[in-house]
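Obj: model holo form, ligand = zinc ion.
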Amino acid sequence: MTTLADLTASTPGLPCRTTDPELWFSKSSSERALAQALCRECPIQLECAQYALDNRDVKGVWGGTTAADRRSFWDGRPWRFDERGRLRLECGSVSAYHAHFTYREQPCGACAAAFEEQLLAERRRRLGVEHAKGGSTTGYHLHRRVGEPACPLCLGAMRAASAAARRRKAGRGLQRARAASGAPASAETVNGAPAAVQPLALAG
Ligand code: SF4
Ligand SMILES: [Zn+2]
Ligand SMILES: [Zn+2]
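Output (holo structure tokens):
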């Protein structure tokens, strides 16, 4: 197996060998930034960065990464360099999806797909909850959101809710009409429902 030591020994013109090496260990952020920029031109940058990520005790700039950059990847998450040479989470996960917004950019296709997948799983989980309750209007809308026809339970709940809404609307219309004509409403209603729609309400 080729080690980083083999690579540095066999690769001529490494920037950290041809420039003042103190830049790579400087306390000055501008000097560290210069070292990082030089690393980006190095032919073994990826191997060097991976070495530093695998060996937590190394100090300074390695493979274009600072100690602080590397610390956020000590948990072993997959990484990549973005087009500006920044150490970033590899694309294709929900975390990487949110990271795109942190960097003020639109999510890539792989991250958007991962996010959609999670969204779908969450909607299916919520559907399970609604079905355990015997179906509901919420379930009806969730079915629509996952792109499928509603099941009989949720469809039934939606139809019942729509019918109830129609009855309420008809009742309010009747009350308004009676109020406009001056007829007393209280004597003709039971439990707040207009007499004309009571049989329907009781049937529902
Ligand atoms: S990536 Fe940077 S630190 Fe690593 S060998 Fe190249 S110049 Fe040196
Ligand atoms: Zn992405
Ligand atoms: Zn359903």
